[in-house]
Write a structure and sequence with these properties.
With 283 residues, this protein is mostly helical. It contains 10 helices and 7 strands. The chain has a domain of 179 residues. The strands form 3 sheets. It has a 3-stranded mixed beta sheet with strand order 2-4-3. Helix 5 packs across helix 6.
Length: 283
């Protein structure tokens, strides 16, 4: 299972160009309106399928886990928020599918709902960082919007697992050690990033229009550039009339932190050991 999760993540990492080319091919053949409508229809059908599955479980068990219901409601609200503020084109909803599947694979390996989500978010950050460093002329900025979409996809997968698969399993000491190690390593990385920003080695914007290199020499010092474009207004308008907001590094980091802290609470506690001990309302 670990090999499967790793192989899948590597596939996601290197398949962005293929997906983009396929999208452009279909787009050129059928046009934007058809593509947007198709993606929207696919999203609706997926939502209907999930709702039908939840209703089937409710009918069979005649009980409802209130905590999981709250998680579903919050996720739907966040997806609506993402559609309004963060998504440029409906094809970006593929993040939900990609990272839902990854989070399910991770959850099948480890025994902790929140930690599985946390690892999925880290994988999403690495994915977007890889895309930006590998082809900055394509993305032009480190996409914190996609960080959030990947988080929502991971949450979608965890909720699918909790709703349709969830089994009670014990948490062993090795998992606790792994969690501590990951959190400590992440803390060190964030500390290094903060020092880089404070020392001017990481800059938010460099107005380049031709030479897109994320590591540049400015005033005799090598710096890491987070963006080659600047958007002074809150809304950015596409050439086909759709508006969206690009999260700045500060906004994106704050939003990710708030969401991860919130889901640390919602995915913790009684859900940690499965549904048997969770609060229910019966019918």
């Amino acid at each position: 299972m670990s090999l499967a999760a790793t192989a899948y993540f590597v596939f996601v990492l290197f398949s962005h160009k293929w997906v983009s080319l396929l999208y452009l091919k279909i787009f050129n053949q059928f046009g934007r309106s058809t593509m947007e409508a198709s993606m929207h229809l696919g999203t609706l059908l997926m939502g209907i399928a999930v709702i039908a599955g939840c209703l089937f479980i409710l009918k069979q068990k005649k009980s409802l886990n209130v905590q999981i219901l709250l998680l579903w409601v919050s996720m739907v609200a966040l997806i609506i928020f993402a559609d309004i503020f963060l998504i440029v084109t409906n094809i970006e909803r593929i993040h939900y599918i990609q990272y839902a599947f990854l989070s399910i694979l991770i959850r099948m390996i480890i025994l902790d709902n929140y930690f599985a989500l946390f690892l999925t978010v880290l994988a999403g950050v690495l994915d977007e960082l890889f895309q930006y460093v590998w082809a900055p002329e394509y993305t032009r900025y480190l996409d914190f919007n996609d960080f959030v979409l990947n988080l929502l996809g991971g949450l979608f997968g965890i909720l699918l697992y909790l709703t349709f698969v969830s089994k009670e399993r014990l948490i062993n000491r090795y998992m606790t050690k792994a969690k501590v190690s990951v959190y400590v390593a992440l803390g060190l990385v964030l500390g290094a990033v903060w020092l880089g920003i404070w020392g001017g080695r990481i800059i938010s914007y460099d107005p380049q229009e031709s030479e897109f290199s994320v590591i540049r020499e400015i005033n005799g010092r090598k710096v890491f550039v987070l963006s080659f474009v600047q958007y002074p207004a809150f809304w950015t308008l596409t050439d086909y009339g759709r508006r969206y907001h690009i999260l700045s590094p500060l906004e994106g980091t704050a939003l990710l932190g708030i969401l991860l802290l919130g889901y640390k609470f919602l995915l913790g506690g009684r859900l940690q050991h499965g549904r048997r001990n969770s609060g229910r309302v019966g019918s």
